[in-house]
Write a structure and sequence with these properties.
This protein has 9 helices and 8 strands. Helix 4 (86-92) packs across helix 5 (102-111). The chain is α/β, with parallel strands linked by helices. It has one domain (3-222): Alpha-Beta Barrel (TIM Barrel), CATH 3.20.20.10.
Length: 226
C-alpha cells in the first residue's frame, strides 16, 4: 500500500470516527486538494478510490486534466477566480467553491456549455472578516444567494469558507458554527442547500462536528507542499 493509499484510508477512518463520536448524520466527502502535486499523485489517489479533486490554479489544473482524461474524475475549482478565467473554469470543472460576487457567477453561468449539466457552485463567505481573504461578508450573503439562484446554468449548492487559521479548538468550533448558522439561515428562507465545504487537513474533525459535508484535504493526503 502506497503512502497516499494509506493516508486516505486513515482519513476515511478518522471521518467515520468523528461522525460516530458526535452523532453527525450527514455524509462527509473528501475533496483531495491536489494543487502543486503532479498528475501521478492524482492518479494514485484515484486508484485508492478518491473521485473528487480540488485545484486552485487554472493552468495547472488544465495541464493535469489533459494528462488524466482516462479517469472519471470530478474536478472542483477552489481558488480565487479572475474574470478572464471564468470561461475555462465553466468549461472544465463540475464544481466551483469560490464564488464571492455576482459578476463571477454571471460569467460562469454564461460560459457554461449547454451540453453539460449546470455548474455546481458554493458561495465563499469571509466568516472571519479578513481583508486578505476572498469571500462575501455574512451580511451580504442573502442578497448574493438570491441573485445567483435565478441563473439557469449554475446551481447553488452551499457555502464554502476558509476561517482564520488557529490551533485553538474552541475558536475553530465557533468559526465553523458561524458558517453553519449562515447556511441554516439560507435554508430557512427556502434555498434548499446541501453542501458545507469547510475544514482542511488541520481542522476537519471540528468542521465535521459543525456540519461539514465536504472537507478539503491536501497535505494529509499528498504530504507537505514544497
Amino acid at each position: 500500500m502506497t503512502s497516499i493509499h494509506s493516508r486516505l484510508q486513515a482519513i476515511r477512518a478518522r471521518i467515520q470516527s468523528v461522525r460516530d463520536d458526535y452523532g453527525c448524520p450527514q455524509a462527509v466527502h473528501i475533496l483531495a486538494v491536489s494543487k502543486s502535486k503532479p498528475a501521478a499523485d492524482v492518479r494514485e489517489a484515484f486508484s485508492a478510490g478518491q473521485i473528487m479533486f480540488g485545484e486552485n490554479y487554472l493552468q495547472e489544473a488544465l495541464d493535469k486534466q489533459a494528462q488524466l482524461t482516462d479517469l472519471s474524475i470530478e474536478w472542483h475549482f477552489i481558488g480565487p477566480i479572475q474574470s478572464n478565467k471564468t470561461q475555462a473554469i465553466a468549461q472544465h470543472f463540475s464544481w466551483v467553491h469560490s464564488v464571492d460576487r455576482l459578476k463571477i457567477a454571471q460569467r460562469l453561468n454564461d460560459a457554461r456549455p449547454i451540453d453539460l449539466p449546470p455548474l455546481q457552485i458554493c458561495i465563499q463567505i469571509n466568516i472571519s472578516h479578513e481583508e486578505s481573504k476572498s469571500g462575501v461578508a455574512p451580511e451580504a450573503l442573502l442578497a448574493l444567494a438570491s441573485e445567483i439562484s435565478h441563473l439557469p446554468r449554475v446551481k447553488l449548492r452551499g457555502l464554502m469558507a476558509i476561517p482564520a487559521p488557529t490551533q485553538d479548538i474552541a475558536v475553530q468550533r465557533e468559526q465553523f458554527k458561524q458558517v453553519r448558522l449562515c447556511y441554516e439561515a439560507l435554508n430557512a428562507k427556502g434555498f434548499a442547500l446541501d453542501t458545507l465545504s469547510i475544514g482542511m487537513s488541520d481542522d476537519y474533525p471540528i468542521a465535521i462536528e459543525q456540519g461539514a459535508t465536504i472537507v478539503r484535504i491536501g497535505a494529509a493526503i499528498f504530504g507537505a507542499r514544497r
